[in-house]
Structures are given as C-alpha cells and as structure tokens.
UniProtKB/TrEMBL annotation:
This is PKD domain-containing protein. Transmembrane segments: none annotated. Residues 1-23 form the signal peptide. Keywords: Signal. It comes from the Bacteria. It comes from Pseudoduganella lutea.
Amino acid sequence: MTLPTTKTALGVLAAMACAAAFAQDDRGYKVHQFPSNRIPVIDGKADDWRDFPDAYVVGTDQLRDDSGKGRKVDPKSLDVKVRVAWVAGLNRLYFLYEAWDDHWDFADPGLHNDTFEIVVDGDLSGGPLVDTLHPNPALPWAQRYFAYHGVHAQNYHIFTPADGKDWALLWGPQAWLKKLPYSNIAYAYDFKPGQPGRLTAEFWITPFDYAGAEQARAVETQLTEGKRIGLTWAVIDYDGADESRQKAFWNLSAHRKMYGNSSLGTVFTLMPLDAKHRKPFEARWSFMVTDMARRSVTFRDESVGPVTRWRWDFGDGATSGEQHPVHRYKEAGKYLVVLTVDGPQGSSRLAKLWDVAVE
C-alpha cells in the first residue's frame, strides 16, 4: 500500500476543511406553516401571528457581534424577534420583524440606515452571490453584476424603517422583486430619528432559484412541506450620522460574509401544518395526463389519515380500487372524477369536475 505524502494529506485536509467551512449551518430553525384561511394580512400588526410557536422565534440571543468589537447583545440597547412562515401553494416567505432600539437611525436617504439584512437561497445551491466574490474577478464589472449578482440567491437590505425612500435595497439588478406580486411590506412605529422605540415590520418576499435582470427568465423557488432552504440575516444598527458610530453587525450566521456567499448562511425547514389545523382524515388526489395521444391519465392518491379502501370513479363508467391507478379514456372529453376513501375514521370523498380532460 502506498501511503500519501505529507503534502497530499495536508491538501486533502485543507479541502475537507474548506468544504466544511462552506456548508450551510443547520441549527434546526423552522418556518411555520399558516393554514390557507389564516394568511397574514400585511398591515404591520402582529395579530395574525398569535398562534406562531414560541419555539420557532429567532431572538437576539441567536445573534453574534462580528463587527470586531466582541460585545454581547444588550437587550436594553437592541432587542429583536423574528418569525418566519409560509403557506402551502404560495411561494412566499412571510416575516414578522419586531425590534426595540434605543436609537433609531433612518434620516439618511442612502445606505446609512438601521437595517434588517436577509439572504435567501431557496434551493440551497450555495456559493457566492455578489459581483465582488465572482470566481472570475477579471471579468468586467457589468458582466459580473448583471449576469451573476443576486441571480441564484437574493440579498435584501430592508430599511427599518424606510422614511422617504424605497423599503429595501435589493442587492442586484432584480429591482422588480421589490414590487407586487413578488413582495409586500407594512411598518408600525411611533418614533422619530434618534429616538428610542419599538418597530414592527411585516412583509413577505418570493425566493427565486434563478432571478436575473430579465424577469421573463426568472424561476421561482417551489416551497413544499419539509423543504430545506438557505436563509440567514443580520441586524445592522447605527447610532448617528458618523459611520464609525455603527454599533454592530449582529449576525445570525457565524460568518460576516454571509451577505455575499449563501454557503455561509443557515438552514430553515418548512414545517407541516399544526395538528389543530389539519383534518385527521380526508380524501385528496392529483392527476397527470401522461400520454395525451392515448388518453392515458395517471391518478395519485394523496389522502390524509389511514386508508383501507380506495374507490375511483373515472366519469366514463370505469372504476378502480387501486391506490394510484392509471386509466385510459376511450373518448375525448371532460370528466367528473371522484375518489372515495374508507378507513378506521370513516369515509371521505373528493370530486373534481372537468379538471380531467383529454382530446
């Protein structure tokens, strides 16, 4: 057996260390699921979030000061609570950001503003997302910026609050992401610049797997139950017009450069509905026309709860007792398809009128 040289071994160890350093940090953070009849109203109020689990709240105690000053968060100076949620069927991340600050700084029209900075990487693809960290720095700036910056992961500098300016800096050429139907925000606060007070920012954003300058080519992240996404944030706190008086860069990530490299962020998991919002037994199903020329349709049972019997009525006189049947229609048309399921908890039916159509 040939033993590796010291140089080779060190190279392998260095590569392993590098890979570990750039793996998203999974601390068990969770994204709460709201039922479809309790979608938060974006009005700057916390009323819609009353049922949000306390265990999912990410507070100031989770943040670290990586400005180099080595201080711990003093809740008398800054106290932050962040709640993140989603709704099945909508590719949106909802946020409730609540913060107390002893000095709110938001008079400047530029970047000098108390800020809640978010980096979202919807498909956990990882890697640099800003032009200054492009793997080929020799490329012209415009090429690095328009083809690369914020394309696979997005950085939002959300101004807290935004007074006399747009609500966020979307760091990249995708300014369209800051408008409906891709985002929305509302604030609630009663202080002036330089004063202490409490702020609430309620908003939602849409994560994208690909979001270049050309909106027509953009690809939304598909949010589904159990999906793990890259998401991290930092709170940038100023105390006056002098840039040197920035208190700290309070970071959820262990790495300051999380702002430009989504591999340095944290992982959040999209949770299922709480049991109190779920029916214990319910018929559900979906379908796909797998061969239109042969009028072949594949049906998939997605019922909730223990099922002992499936009864499919395909609307053309044919039936099936399989869980996931495939059916070929003899004639073109629109069909009423019904699935009835039986189980220890009773019986449930779901009919879909004319969704299934073949030519």
